[in-house]
Structure formats: structure tokens, C-alpha cells
Amino acid sequence: MAFQLWQLCLAALGLLSFGLCIRRAVFAPLSKLPGPWYSLFADWYLMYQEFTGQRRPYIHQLHKKFGPAVRLGPNEISFTSIEAVKEIYQSGGSGYDKTEFYTLFRQFSTRTMFSTLDKGTHSQKKRHVAGQYANTNIMQPEVMGGIQDRAKAFVKRCEESKGTGVDAYVYLHCFALDCASHHLFAPYGTKSIEGTDLDMMEELSYHDSLKRNLAQYRWPILSFWLEKVFKPRPAPIANQYVLNSSAKSDPKAHSLTYKLQNSKDAFQPIQIAAECMDHLAAGIDTTGDALCLLMYQLSLPESFKVQDQLISEVSNNNKALDELPYLDAVIKEGLRCFPPIPMSQPRYTPSGGRAIDGYFIPAATIVSCQAWSVHQLNEEVFVKGDQFLPERWLDKEAAIEMNRLFFSFGAGGRGCTGRHLAMAEMKCLFREVYSQYKTRIAPDMKGRMTLDDQVISSRPLDQTCKLLFESLN
Ligand code: HEM
């Protein structure tokens, strides 16, 4: 039987590919790491999980099977241990450089603090921003007063519902938008709870850009064609609002716009707008989803005891927000169980490579931790890690170790700049609500609250959460 030339070529090519695969499996730098066998050869299966919105649960299952270090692809690893969190995100202050994944988060085609990849440039940018988000600035009467006003506006909405139910998803996102915009642009903050800027909240929160963003990240050279298939997310209302508000000549001194406009390094107007747009986007869905998922959890019968204890702490007292330990515990536990950014925060190992969790990881490998797994799979620190148990945070000694592993706001110099603002918003709103109401799931609540993963964040699947606000009086 004679073979034709093309058949011989094909067979040779097959053999060559097979040989290369075997060589890769045996000699690949990551071959010593635990992980599924196919992850040695390609990351197609990981990409399939990403495009179907299953990356986070897929990685979680791999950690359950293979342990705290798992190879996800030929050049990518996920970790869950405290040592890994410290090394990747905190070594040298800001940890490792970010990967090109963060290029997706440019605003007005401009790199912001969040989308800057190298830590040198990042720390320069951060100098101009950090002060406005320091706890001392957030605790100023002007800032807290603005948050308090918006919490009262939210409660007014609950009052108007007269026990018939409120879509908490909508108004908690409005609350987050109004608070963030107040911080960025005061006195030009939005009033979406009252209805004026509701369309902006909808534009920013109800979108589905998962596939477009992932396609751009995975195949950047096809960007031109991808733009034609997946249309860019239009945000004309928010864009115009940010461009206008960040150019006003009389922002309040506590606002970010004021700080950037008066910075020693002269910022171009488009750079100020891009930075503000980024913080607006960073502050809406994160805080809105965190509040919504937690309020829903508290409204379930299994949490009535927790809710009662919260009500008894926040009712009838004039204590400062940081003197309410149970409120703090409830919010921390909500963020631990339902981190709004539960997915991987990818970084590159620096030149020369690094040892992480006892493995040598070569330079330019993508390494990451995801809050979802960090919070659930470190049983010695978070006992019964998959359960909602706010009491765990009341034990001061245990809390030291838990705080070291608390990853909802990221960690190190590139962790969340807005964390004090977010905590103040959440505490203020919960005190306002639970000093006057108990919350229950509305009988006609049909929305599914299972987590729906986006590119890096997660939100309740149906984006609706109908709750009853029953007056305590
Ligand atoms: C519960 C609410 C929030 C959560 C859970 C949260 C979480 C996070 C996380 C995990 C990161 C790091 C992400 C990464 O490295 O991939 C981050 C970064 C950031 N967040 Fe937040 N965030 C929240 C609210 C806010 C708010 C209200 C603002 C501002 C209005 C804000 C502004 C930022 C900024 C500017 C960064 C980039 C920091 C940098 O690159 O140095 N966040 N956030």
C-alpha cells in the first residue's frame, strides 16, 4: 500500500505535535504544579469556562480537588493561601505588576490608576488620589453628611412603599451611584434615588459585556473585527455627565475632582474625566451588589436572629459608626460570603521568577487569588467558611487572622482605594434601615439571587430583589 506525499506530511506533523506535547508535559516549567493534565498543553478549557461565565466555580472546584495551588493553563496558576496573597499582592508594598487583562478597564481610551499595569507608574498616580479616600477625609461632616442624606432618601423610598415591597436591587444601586458621585463631583452628585438620574444607574448597571471584554482580552489582535461583532457598551448618559461634572470650576474641597484639578502635576481634562469615570464604575456595582446580597441574606428566615440582633444594636443609640461591633461584623461577613469581586485578580511574576507556596514560579507567569476560594477554603481561619456567621468577627483574637485573609477589597497597595468610603456607605445605610425597619422577602419576589459572574465582578442573576420593609413602630 503506497502512501501519498500529503498523507506522509500529515502523519509527520501529527507525530511532531504529539512529541512537542509530551516534551511540554514533562519539561514545562509548571509541570510540577498540581492541576488537571490538559492544563499543561493549552488553556482552551479555561477559556471555555470564562466565556460561559463559569471561571470562578471552575477554579473553586479545582482548588477543592488539587489543593491551595492549582495550574489553570500552561502559563497560569491560582492560589488560595495567606502566604500566596501576601507574596502576590503585598510584597514590596504593592505586590506584582498587573497583566494586560486590566487594559480592558481603560476609560475614554486613557489608562487610569486601576488600569495601569506597572507598579511604579501606579504609585505616582495613587499619590494624587489616596488622600481623598483616607478615612480621615471620609469621616469629615461634609462627606458623611452627603452619605447620610442619601441613606435617608433610600429609607423614604421604603416608607413610600407602605409595606408593599421595594425592588432593593434598583435603589441600592442608586444609593451607591449617588454616594460615589457625591464623593467625586460634589456639589454635582446625582439624585437617582429621587428619580432624576435613574437612567444613568440603569445604563451603568444593566449591561452584558462579558463576552466582548473577554474576546478583546484573549484575542487583542482581532480587536478590529471583534468591535464589529460585539458592539461597545454604550454609556452616553454617564459619559456626558462625567465629562461635564469633572470640568466644573467650583468642586467642593473634599471631592476627587477638586484634588485632581488642583494637583501639582497638571492633569489633562480627559485624564481627570477618565479617573473619575473609573471610580464611578468601581463604586456602583460593587457597593450596590454587596448591599443587595447582604440585605437579601438578612431577610431570609434563617437570618432572622442575626437581623434581630442587628436591630437591637442600631436602634435607640447615638453611637458613632465605628462603635457598633455587630453592624461591623454583619457587613464584614456579608462581604466575605458574597464578595462583589469574587474572581481572580491576575498579576505577573517579576523577572527572575519567585517562590510562591513552596513552588518556584518562572518570570511572567500569570498568578492570582480569587476571593471566593480564599474565603471558603481556609477552614482553619474561616471555620464553616461556606456559612453566613457574623458572630465569627466578634472574637477579637480570631479576627486578627481573619482580617489577614479578608480579600474582598483585594490586598496591598493596589487593593481598593474606595474601601473606607464603601464601608461608611454600607454602615450608614444599614443603620438607617435597621433602626426603623425589619426586612423580609416579598411574597412576589421571583428574582434568582445566584451569582452571575461578569469579567471580574459578580451580581445577582436576575438583577431584581423585591423586599418588604416592615416598620418597627
Ligand atoms: C463593597 C464595595 C467595594 C468592593 C468590594 C471593592 C473591591 C475592590 C477590589 C477587590 C479592588 C482590586 C481589584 C484588582 O486589583 O483587580 C478594587 C480596586 C479599586 N476600587 Fe474598589 N471596591 C468597592 C468599592 C469601591 C468604591 C466605592 C470606590 C470609589 C468610589 C472604589 C474604587 C476603587 C479603585 C479606584 C480601585 C483601584 C485601586 C488601584 O488600582 O490602586 N471601590 N476595589
UniProtKB/TrEMBL annotation:
Record GO terms (molecular function): heme binding; iron ion binding; monooxygenase activity; oxidoreductase activity, acting on paired donors, with incorporation or reduction of molecular oxygen
Pfam families documented for this protein: p450 (PF00067)
Co-factor(s): heme
Keyword Chaperone: no
Keyword tags: Heme, Iron, Metal-binding, Monooxygenase, Oxidoreductase
Domain of life, per lineage: Eukaryota
InterPro entries found in the cross-reference section: Cyt_P450, Cyt_P450_E_grp-I, Cyt_P450_sf, Cytochrome_P450_monoxygenase
CDD domains reported for this sequence: CYP_fungal
Binding site for heme: 416
Name under which the protein is recorded: Related to benzoate 4-monooxygenase cytochrome P450
Phylogenetic placement of the source organism: Eukaryota, Fungi, Dikarya, Ascomycota, Pezizomycotina
